[in-house]
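Example 9 (inverse folding). The structure is encoded as follows.
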């Protein structure tokens, strides 16, 4: 099977560059943007050898998993571009729900997918997908935005801070190519709703409907500090709002998020 775009993505003008193997789809997309590529264009592979996650962590991507990056050049500020990650999470979650229908017929309870702030997709409380946004200014005072979406299709890394899983381990037997096609189709929908940030209110509502841990105890490590409280919501800019024991609502722009009773241990 080969990577292809569905009819919705094709009619919306998306292009596709597929690789048998590549160092990093995000790095390739940014390099193309520096060379004048304006997209919108997907860069995909089933084997990535130098992938990166948040905070420059290595993202393990053995053959058979899906590494995908979408490049779009737009007239938005970096702060607005950052909210596109929420649309990416919704796109992947939507594609997964459709692909898991057959697997759910064999299960006593349907698979539960959820979105973890700021940019993970969870399945059964384990990390299935990581999302990494990067942006650079390009000619014409525009912003090249790359959204990298890496999904564990056939295998998941071990020993990660948040336990990870794969679609195969969950009983969802699909290929990376099939998952990508569904993702690219869903992206057209949620990218359209986002509408260069003008529709973030709708994205925010849909994201919160699928969010993991709302109302639960949470600890966020931001550099050397740890903030503890209850996950209240996300605000109109995408910040995580934590309600402390004193009742103060604190906005969090970045950090490592840990939920539940293991919050103080940094184990979930």
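The amino acid assigned to each position is listed next.
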């Amino acid at each position: 099977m080969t990577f292809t775009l569905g009819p919705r993505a094709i009619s919306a003008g998306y292009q596709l560059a597929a690789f048998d193997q590549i160092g990093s789809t995000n790095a390739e997309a940014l390099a193309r943007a520096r060379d004048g590529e304006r997209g919108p264009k997907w860069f995909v592979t089933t084997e990535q050898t130098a992938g990166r996650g948040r905070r420059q962590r290595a993202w393990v991507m053995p053959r058979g998993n899906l590494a995908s990056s979408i490049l779009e050049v737009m007239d938005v500020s970096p702060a607005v571009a950052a909210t596109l990650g929420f649309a990416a999470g919704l796109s992947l979650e939507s594609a997964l729900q459709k692909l898991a229908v057959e697997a759910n017929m064999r299960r006593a309870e349907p698979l539960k997918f959820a979105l973890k702030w700021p940019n993970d997709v969870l399945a059964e409380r384990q990390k299935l997908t990581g999302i990494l946004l990067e942006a650079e200014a390009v000619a014409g005072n525009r912003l090249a935005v790359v959204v990298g979406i890496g999904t564990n299709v056939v295998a998941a890394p071990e020993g990660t801070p948040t336990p990870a899983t794969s679609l195969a381990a969950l009983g969802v037997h699909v290929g990376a190519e099939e998952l990508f096609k569904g993702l690219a189709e869903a992206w057209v929908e949620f990218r359209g709703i986002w509408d260069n940030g003008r529709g973030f209110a709708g994205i925010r509502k849909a994201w919160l409907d699928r969010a993991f841990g709302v109302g639960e105890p949470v600890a966020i490590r931001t550099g050397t500090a740890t903030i503890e409280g209850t996950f209240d919501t996300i605000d109109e800019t995408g910040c995580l709002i934590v309600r402390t024991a004193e009742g103060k609502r604190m906005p969090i722009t970045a950090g490592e998020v840990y939920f539940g009773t293991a919050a103080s241990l940094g184990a979930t």
